[in-house]
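In this section we walk through a basic example: taking a raw amino acid sequence and producing a predicted 3D structure, encoded as discrete structure tokens. The instruction is simple. Fold the sequence below.
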Amino acid sequence: MNQGALYNVLKKIKPLVAVVQGVRKLHSRFRLDSWILTGEERVSGEPITVFFSGQIENCNYIARIVFREGCYKTRSCKMWSWKVSKLINNVSVPYSLIFLQTNQVTHNSTLRNYSFLIPSWIAGELDVAHALQCQRGNDSVKTDLRNIRRNRFTFRVTRKPEEMEKFYYTMYLPYVRQTHGDHAFIATLDELRREASKRSELLLVEQDGKPVAGVYLGIHDHERIDALELGVMGANRDLVKMGALAAIYYYSLLHASEGKYKRLFLGGARPFLNDGPLRYKKKWGLHITGRLHTLPDQFVFRPCLGSTAVDSFLENNPFVYEEKNTFRVAVFIGAQQEYSDQLIDHIRKAYCLPGFAGATVFRINAGATLALEENIAPLTPPDVTLKDAPAA
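The resulting token sequence is shown next.
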């Protein structure tokens, strides 16, 4: 029997197929690809080197926020996920920043050398009644609503399979590919259908009776409706500027209110707080609910202190990290920056979203040290911090 015939026989043995698939899944889960990225840091222009282990989409996202104009990417090696703590705690590594993606449960107590545990995605939702009420006090949202009226955007809801499929190919795919590029996690049409099960519908934004944007909605329960994926016809940026994206958010809230739903789930956002999509959701009243259940991995992140490039990255990229089963915000300031009431107020307003336990302000001192100041409290119970930390 030749090899081809033997393969055809073996692949028909269902138990064997299941075993092989299980081994492959286990292997891919615990043995991750790794890359070494080099280039100029986005703000300072100084050289910086990143070691990343995990999914290529996450690697590409990290490259986008770290580097000024692309980077030189070298494929390194496959890395067993249980070697995370060994690399993170090695004081002699030759990298500026280390990001290790893991789906194992990692605790802060196992991390040293100013390492952080960062969720790969954070999930959030809107309180429907609160969001509709608060739009009157937000100038940016009021501008969006004027654009919606001025450009004659309306909406309708459909459950027709052919319209859902057309939305997927003409709105969702073009928009997510253009907006997120090589770091996009693109859902298949079947995945969207499974996510929403039989309780799905499509909200279409129309202009003069013509569909121009939309969002795929899933009915989670009697209190919550989920905005699963959105898109704009042909990824047309002019439509976005006219208010088509804002119309998706506003009409989703209106539709949820009409259906007596209390919460509108907005899916996931990246944990870096200057990220555009997160800032956009924030202005509608985003409340952070935890990790995104469909992408629950985490990053173990270690900045190797002592260079201008690393200082610049940290100062310009506040992020969410986990501490004692809560989410906190990490904000970094330079040795000469004044720690003032104005700074505290800015951190509260810009970064302390509902659902965070508070923010921690790290002062980057000369050499390889951080000082952790006092807790800065947001406007509601959570707090913000700066306390001394020992030298690395």
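Looking at the output, two observations stand out. Residues 161-180 form the longest helix (20 residues). The two ends are 63 Å apart (CA to CA). In the next section we compare this with other chains.
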